[in-house]
Amino acid sequence: MPRASKKESRVIDFMRSFGEGLGLKTTVDAIGNVVIYKPATKGMENRPTVVLQSHLDMVHQKNAGTQFDFDSEGIRSLIDGEWVKADGTTLGADNGIGVALGHGAAPVERYCAPRAGSPFHHRRRNRHDRRQRPR
Questions:
Q1: What sign for the dihedral angle of Cα 53, 56, 57, 61?
Q2: Fewer Cβ close by (within 10 Å): the C or N end of the chain?
Q3: Which own/partner contact pairs does 64-73 have at CB distance under 8 Å and 24+ positions apart?
């Protein structure tokens, strides 16, 4: 799913729907941070909370001569020996793997686990971003 910095609305909506579809408490704050809360397995309620945090946006670049629209196209991946690579662009895995981990952990019921929260930040902060995150 295309998710360029400052253009994350589709992935924010997807993550909200995903959490809500699992019946999990899901919140989205005013600047687009999504948090999916998963309760602890019975008997694990007093254990420390596990937090799986990642950001939703993707820093994207394409190689010179590559025709690609990051607003509408998904990344074209390819296998090169033992490596997964993108065809003419960045792979988008800079923090996509963190999103995948939180996304994959949310529906799992067969493991005993403490409560968990997966905050998916709408984008990473950098020195150019003057907005403050809620504390």
A1: positive
A2: C
A3: 70/2, 70/4, 71/2, 71/4, 71/7, 72/2, 73/2
The helix (run of H) or strand (run of E) holding residue 84 is strand 83-86
Element (H, E) at 100: helix 96-105
d(CA 63, CA 71): 16
Tokens 């939703």 correspond to: 56
Q: Rounded to the nearest 5 degrees, what angle is found at the Cα of 55, between the Cα atoms of 51 and 60?
A: 155
Q: Note the pTM of the prediction, 2 decimals.
A: 0.71
